[in-house]
Structure formats: structure tokens, C-alpha cells
Amino acid sequence: MIKWIQSHRAAIWWIAGASILVFIASLIIVPLLVVRIPSDYFAHRSRHIKPRAGRRSLLRWVLLVGKNLLGYVFVFAGLIMLVLPGQGMVTILIGITLVDFPGKYRFERWVVSRGPVLRSINRLRKRAGRPPLFLEE
């Protein structure tokens, strides 16, 4: 292992730098996004589809593919950061929120419905002067 680390020093420095960058970005971006979520976003058991969501232009497809690729990169980087220095779980969660997959809304709703997560989110929202998130029970 030591030999591998010594022979790949540049890669490890890049990974460490990316890890620090993702950590700092998550400290800034996550609270900003959490306060922008509508308070009733998770109030329904299933996501309501917007009327225009069915229409896909070429630009919309390119953005969708780019967003999903970026999400997979974050998930992969997070998996690497589980064994190397970095915020692996945070990076994986950011990646999962970017990727579109069946059951994503249910998964997000399940994560948010955990007591400590919901309390933390609502504490951030209260400091920002926003109403708390509420969930359908």
C-alpha cells in the first residue's frame, strides 16, 4: 500500500484537493439549498409531475445527461473518499440528489423524515426566517 501511495502522489494530492473543495462547497451550498426548498415539498407520498416535464428539447436532454453524469462522478468520488481522506458520505448524498432514478423522491423523503435530519433542516430554515418543512404522516 505504501508503495502504491508513493507512486501515485499526484493523484492523491488531486483527490485530497477535491475533497477539501467539496467539503467547503457543501458547507456553503447545502444550507442555501435547504432553505430554498418549499415547506410542502415532502408533504406528499409521491411527487407531483409538472405539466411541462413531459416535453424534452435537445438542450433539456443535454442538461439532463450532464446532471446525471456529474451525479455519478460525485457518487464515485464519494466512494473513493470513504477509504481516502474526504467527506465520502456527504459527497455520495450530493451525487444521489443529482442522479435521476426510480424511487428517488421516496428515498429523499425517507432521509428527510429521519428525526435528526429533519430537526437540522428545520433549524437551518428557522435561522433563515423560513417556515419548517412538514411531512405527511
* Strand residue content: under 5%
- Tell me the series of helices and strands, N- to C-terminal: HHHHHH
- How far from one another are the termini? 50 Å
The rough form would be described as: globular
Number of strands: 0
Explain the layout of strands and helices:
Blueprint: H1 2-7, H2 9-36, H3 58-81, H4 88-98, H5 104-113, H6 115-127
Short synopsis of the structure:
This protein is an all-alpha fold. 67% of the residues lie in helices and 0% in strands. It contains six helices and no strands.
Architecture overview:
With 137 residues, this protein is mainly α. It has one domain. The protein contains six helices and no strands. Helix 3 packs antiparallel against helix 4. The protein is globular and about 55 Å long. The mean pLDDT is 82.
Features:
mainly alpha; 67% helix
